[in-house]
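Project channel, design review

CF: Before we commit to the Hibiscus trionum constructs, I'd like one complete example in the thread so the newer folks can see what an input/output pair looks like. Taking F-box/LRR-repeat protein 15-like leucin rich repeat domain-containing protein.
RD: sounds good, go ahead.
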Amino acid sequence: MSRAAVSYSCGSCGYPLNLTSSDRIASGIGSEYRKSIKNGLISFLSVDLSRFTQVDEVHCFPVSWGRYRLKTKLLCRKCGVHIGYGYGDAPALCGFDSPNSSSAAYKKFTVKIRAVQPSEDFLDCRTDRESFGLTCHRWLNIQNLKRRSLQFPCSFGIVGPSSLSQSCTDISSFHLYRILTRFQHLEYLSFSGCTELTDSALNYLKPYGSRLQTLCLDCCFRISDHGISLVGDGCPSLTTISLYRCNITDTGLEALANTCLALRRVNLAYCPHISDSGLRALSQGCCELQAIKISSCRGVSGVGLRSCSSTLVYIDAECCNLKPEGIMAIVSGGGLKFLNIAGLSCSNFRNGLEAIGNGFAAGLKILSLRMCRSVTDASIVAIAKGCPQLREWNLALCHEVRILGWASIGSNCHNLEKLHVNRCRNLCDQGLQALREGCKRLSVLYMNRNGWISDTAVELFKLYRCNVKIKFEEVMSIGPNWDNLYDDE
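CF: and here is what came back for F-box/LRR-repeat protein 15-like leucin rich repeat domain-containing protein:
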């Protein structure tokens, strides 16, 4: 439980009562306090009476006492539900002066536990929410209604050999049924790493998954096209789905494209059975598609993205068997801002990347051509001239880029801030000089020393461009977080 004071609202309508746990009578915590809690009551020193409707109940004592017992019902001012009582003694004769209804007239207030609930702001704290869920059924129901995301212990955020080797919880149809019937307002659900999850378990998404916006099924190896069709039928509001390493085919993608029309982000990395046909269905059916990951999908050439929507701003196609016409298709939408096509080494790409600079990718800001060993100066010149908005460019291990290419980058990439030239065999003193004299906004240069670059050239770069950090380290992956694609707009 957090140490912050808990504020309470009406348990019926949610009206804020300005009632806080810091005003609770705690000096006598012991057997009396436990007895009060057992009876479902909490005592307070003061309350904000402007939040309540008061109904007085007068209990008379003998006239010789000259006093009466003041007991006032406290009702929620908005809905009229009985919240508790205020107690006090006032020096007046029975039947004469009306009782004073100010807070100072009362000695204590008792509130029925079942009549209140923690306020919205307090419920944003997960640990407090869970603690209150153990208190009574009302607060347990509140916890269930407030939960928006759920991730199983076997789920992992970063996929790798270590995460795959971890023991995974077996999620059965019964488990999923209990989860979805309890938490009916989930917007994010992750089964990533639940390798034994089957299609039949996803049947329960149909009656209970209508609010779901994000679903992660990474490494759910037993999920097939039938399971994906169940996801489509049960989750019409889905905007993000991650199917990393799933054994699905184009049939599953077509089912998604026909039912989840609001999809914006799709992760299909390492899905070996998909092809351009499935990508075409997605790009044509999901008109709001913003980001797609197809890394290591060897059956994809890129042509399936031809005439894609201008909303598509993020494409990660590392180590795909892309073709020159596939590159043209990828940039055809005109809205691309991030493109990763690292790993292209085929000889037919010596000049095949010129399509990136033909005008359709003029808004491109981040480009990774890492390990594109066959890319020539002609492609580099075309991209440097045709993509004036480039801010970060990874050319690590691009061995065929020579002086002409480096000079073009220096003279055309006026907005470039980060450049990766690690292990480029043909980067020499003249090439480094061209970068030094151009790229006026450059702030970071990633490089490695090689036999073609002298220490003198490096020191001259540091001298004339002292505002540029030279980092002798290699970054394998660049790009934005695909959940926040427009943060730097």
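RD: helpful, thanks. The first strand starts at residue 7 and ends at 10.
CF: The mean pLDDT is 83.
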